[in-house]
Amino acid sequence: MVVIILRILVDTLYLLALINPVSKISVLSALSSTAGPKEFGEVTGKSSVAAAAILLVSMSFGHFVLSSIFQVELHSLRLAGGVVLFWVGFTALRKGVFFEMESSMRFQDVAVVPLACPLIAGPATITAVIALGAQHGMWTTAAAILVALTVNDLIMRLTSPLERLLRRFNILGAVIRITGLIVMTIGTEMALDGLAAWGGRSGASDVPATVR
Fold first, then answer.
1. How far apart are the first and last CA of the chain?
2. Residue 71 — φ and ψ, nearest 5°?
3. Of 41, 51, 99, 104, which one has the fewest beta carbons inside 10 Å?
């Protein structure tokens, strides 16, 4: 039981790093000036539910859809997700923002796109839950997903006080850039894992059957 709890905790922290709650603070704070507390809560709740649905469905059926329908291996998805995550982190490191919003976008419109997807359930997060489900089991991964999304939802609901605190000490930009560097590192590791898996498979296929 203790091992399962530790596994869920580790997977939760990993998913939180990919979900990156700090990016939600910067996005929501830019659009929430005209939204009341009730409307703000509805948007964050809707985005969390939508993201949970996307990630749980991806965990349950993603590997089957990729391998059986699209003929895509998991290491290819890890490589693609890692590249996307690296670019997101690089953008944050260079510009100090994780996502550039259109000026015409209303706060009510951000719940599903871009908040739920791709900011919460993005390519890297979807790749991670598919891999974690295959490695650690569906129930453990599902628990980690729900705990990570609950923590992220709580942080999103605290956007206003957190933003005021970070701006008061003039560290919001620094926090975003540091987080961007961490995201770049995770993206690099994910891409390298995909390349290593692809190289191992290619190397194995080159070995004669008599040697194997």
1. 38
2. 55, 45
3. 104
Count of beta carbons in the 10 Å neighbourhood of residue 133: 24
Name residue, tokens 């700090």. Answer: 22
Q: Which one-letter DSSP state was computed for residue 125? A: H
Q: What is the 3-state secondary structure (H, E, C) of 141-209?
A: HHHHHHHHHHHHHHHHHCHHHHHHHHHHCCCHHHHHHHHHHHHHHHHHHHHHHHHHHHHHHHHHHHCCC
Please provide the DSSP assignment of 34-94 as one string: G--HHHHHHHHHHHHHHHHHHHHHHHHHHHHIIIIIS---HHHHHHHHHHHHHHHHHHHHH
Question: Residue 73: CB partners within 8 Å, gap ≥ 6?
Answer: 66, 67, 197, 198, 201
- Cα 37–chain centre separation: 26
The tens digit of pLDDT for each residue in 84-111 reads 889 988 998 998 877 766 655 666 677 8
